[in-house]
Write a structure and sequence with these properties.
Layout (H helix, E strand, L loop, with lengths): L7 E3 L2 E3 L3 E3 L15 H12 L4 E8 L17 H16 L3 E7 L12 E2 L24 E2 L2 H21 L3 E8 L2 H6 L14 H4 L1 H13 L5 E10 L11 H14 L3 E4 L6 H5 L7 H8 L4 E4 L5 H9 L5 E4 L1 H5 L3 H7 L20 H14 L2
Parallel strand pairs: 3-4, 3-12, 4-5, 5-8, 6-7, 8-9, 9-10, 10-11, 11-12
Antiparallel strand pairs: 1-2
Length: about 375
């Protein structure tokens, strides 16, 4: 019988239990993207609380067009690497694996007035004030050239190498929630007619190229994972038109990439609402069927009966906890000892209420764009 406290391998590294902290946007770095003492305390609290692994918030990968919002951390310079090194060291000393989530905003940057994306399509929805978005609608992005695509790939590889320097156990490519890699994989956002557009294999090509380049550059035991989703932060209700058929095609491409794990995001409405298809299959179940690597499920999995069901029915290997980790950094210790969980407080989603004003946002946007490469 599978239990929450089984030790499970990722690549050649061992994770102490099946509970991971899901990546959550915290807008807590300084204005230069350097992690702060508050971030060190935040990540260390989960390690102290018994989580087997921690996946960081999205970390921007270059100073060109990757940055998503003010106070987002980066992994593009020595100051950022040094600050992350302190965090990684603290987390590792408590027995938790720490994985850096690498992220490129693409067309849905809350910050940039000029963006680039697979195709010239204005994003749905509006910017989010909680994360510094004071400009209303997103700008119309420029379609990425082949040079732009290579520049983005290089940014991921360089950031992965910086993650190695900083002492992370691995990286996770953020291919979910509507950001750049998800934009390439989404048909209505990718109208390209070259080798990066069209069928599933072509739309996944940039992700495959990034994974291949990173795996060639980093040590063999360094974890390289991928996160995917159907819904997007600016289009929560989006689902693949052909459901499980599309899932199988995409998972077949993912299998070719030989990643070390797949993380399936279903955080907005919960696993049952976002992972199940009409034929009774689930995205995480199909991933377990098709892939050779561990699968991380996500979405309301503080419900321990649901989490155990996913393990027992072979639909997940790891369980990513988001909101209930915020209210219970010691979630794993509480589960192990049968202690009641503190209910989630929605206000804890936004760590710095009042951090942004429109005036501060404009000043920061102007300052960043002067240094933008």
């Amino acid at each position: 019988m599978k239990t929450f406290f089984d030790k499970i391998p990722m690549n050649t590294q061992e994770v102490a239990n099946r509970f991971l902290v899901a990546p959550m946007t915290r807008v807590s770095a300084d204005l230069e993207g350097v992690p702060t003492i508050e971030m060190e305390e935040y990540y260390t609290s989960f390690a102290k609380g018994g989580f087997g692994g921690i996946i960081t918030e999205g970390i921007y990968t270059d100073n060109h067009y990757a940055k998503a919002y003010p106070n987002q951390p980066g992994l593009v310079n020595e100051a950022q690497v040094a600050a992350w090194k302190k965090i990684a060291s603290e987390v590792s000393s408590k027995g938790s694996v720490i994985i850096a989530q690498l992220m490129h905003a693409g067309s849905i940057s809350q910050l940039l007035s000029k963006t680039k994306a697979p195709s010239k399509i204005i994003p749905l929805g509006h910017k989010l004030k909680h994360y510094g978005g004071f400009s209303g609608s997103f700008p119309i992005p420029e379609e990425m050239s082949k040079q732009d695509i290579q520049m983005a790939i290089n940014g991921y590889v360089d950031s992965a190498l910086n993650a190695v320097k900083a002492g992370f156990n691995g990286i996770e490519l953020h291919g979910a929630n509507g950001y750049l890699l998800d934009q390439f994989m989404t048909p209505y956002l990718n109208l390209r007619t070259d080798e990066y557009g069209g069928n599933v294999e072509n739309r996944f090509r940039i992700v495959s190229a990034i994974i291949s380049a990173i795996k060639k550059a980093v040590p063999a035991d360094f974890i390289v994972g991928l996160r995917i989703s159907e819904g997007k932060v600016n289009h929560l209700a989006y689902r693949w038109e052909e459901g499980s058929k599309t899932a199988r095609e995409l998972l077949t491409e993912i299998k070719k990439s030989a990643i070390d794990y797949l993380h399936i995001a279903a955080e907005h409405r919960g696993w049952r609402e976002e992972s199940l298809y009409e034929d009774g299959s689930s995205l995480s179940g199909l991933a377990k069927e098709i892939l050779d690597c561990p699968v991380i499920a996500n979405g309301g999995l503080h419900d321990l009966a649901l989490s155990q069901e996913l393990l027992d029915t072979n639909q997940a290997d790891f369980l990513a906890i988001g909101k209930y980790a915020l209210s219970n950094p010691d979630f794993v210790h509480k589960v192990r000892n049968g202690i009641e969980l503190i209910p989630f407080d929605k206000h804890s989603l936004y760590p710095n209420p009042g951090l942004f004003s429109e005036e501060k946002y404009r000043m920061y946007q102007e300052a960043f764009e002067k240094t933008q490469i």
